[in-house]
Amino acid sequence: MTAGEGTGRSAPDATRVGHVHLKVADLDRAIAFYGGVLGFEVQQRVGSQAAFLGAGGYHHHIGLNTWESQGGSPPAPGTTGLYHSAFLFPDRASLAAAVKRVLDAGIQLDGAADHGVSEAIYLTDPDGNGVELYRDRPREEWPRDEDGGLRMFTRALDVRALLEEVGSVRSTGRRTRRFGHQGPSRSRTRWARTRPGRRRFRATGPWA
Q: What pTM was computed for the model?
C-alpha cells in the first residue's frame, strides 16, 4: 500500500515526528543519559517528576516523566510498546562524536548497521528503552530496485572507521540533532556498561 492509498489523502511532505515522551524510573538518571551523554539540553524541568530536553533551542525532542513509573521496571519480554527511539544527526562526523561520548561513558553498544539509506548505532537507555543514533545518506545514494522502489538492507558497519570521523567535527559551532523515528516494541536488557577496555558491538541485526 502506498502513502495515502485507500484514504484519498496523505500527510504533508513536511510532516515530522516531533518528539518522544518516555516513562522513566529515575528522572535524574534519565537526564544524565539523554543530556549528559547524548547531548540534548534541558529546556524545562517540572520539579522532580518531569523534564523536557531538546537540541538547537527546540522546546523538546525528548520528554521524560516519572508520573506513573517512579522506581518502575522495564516492560517484560513479550509485551508491546516502543522498539526504539531514533535520533537523526546532520552528518557522519556528528554521529561519530555522539558515539564516542557513549563509549567514553562506558555504555555498551547493542549493534551497528549500514542500512543503505543510513548508518545506525544501537544502544539501551537506563530504563531499558532502545535507542538508535543515525545519519542519513543523501537521497540520491539510497539503494533502489529496477522500478525505483526503496531497497534498504542490513550490513555490517565499521564502527572504528566511523570514529575516525570525530576529528572532522569542528571545535566551534553547534550541530543540531533532531528526532528521527520510532519503532515498535521489543524487550531490552538493563542499561549495560562495559568493563574498562572492553567495548563490544555487534555488526548486524534486525534493528532498522
A: 0.79
